Amino acid sequence: MTEPIRVLVADDQALLRGSFRALIETTSDLTAVGEAATGAEAVELARALRPDVVLMDVRMPRLDGIEATRRIHQATDTADVRVLMLTMFDVDAHVFAALRAGAAGFLLKDTPPADLLDAIRVVAAGEALLAPTVTRRLIAEFARQPRTANPLPRVLDGVTDRERQVLTLVARGLSNTEIADHLHLSLATVKTYIGRLLTKLLARDRAQLVIIAYESGLVGPAAQ
User: Fold this and answer.
1) For residues 124-152, average pLDDT
2) Which of 22, 140, 170, 218 is the most buried (most CB within 10 A)?
3) Residue range 148-223 in CATH 1.10.10.10
4) What is the Cα–Cα distance from 42 to 63, expressed in whole angstroms?
């Protein structure tokens, strides 16, 4: 029998922590292994418990979720711990920084319970997950930042035109199925393209592909 996915819940509101924990415990393939009320606690418990996924709030006392994510991601003993962050519209400006810190996914706090549970499973499986609403707002935020003179730096050398199309759609928040429909490709072909992009761009996961698409200038105001 497959071991359940072990989840650490980190949120400064006790009611929300309890609600998330109760929701997680309703499924046989997930289990809540602990709760953290601060970012510092989240880092400590991630090291002590080694969960598969940390469900992390962005705003928390004694270390915000972004810095907590960075510390979890950079520490050798917790580098494999995946962080799924929950955000509200008023903290979307921090999403880009959190992606760079190593977060594997983002969802809005009003995400339906079933979607939240599915998101935990997706992230635990090694995929990255970005809610399309968050991604669109992230693109808008990035578009307001100063751009480099060279719109497509050498990081994209060796990436084919078709791979750039796929990368653009990944950065827009489309799922593999949506990309396949958009480009009239099979799902297996899309997965192959994404695998090649991960290898060529030395990216850890889908979230890093999003960062590269933004930083390279491949995704910008015209992609909204």
Assistant:
1) 61
2) 170
3) yes
4) 9
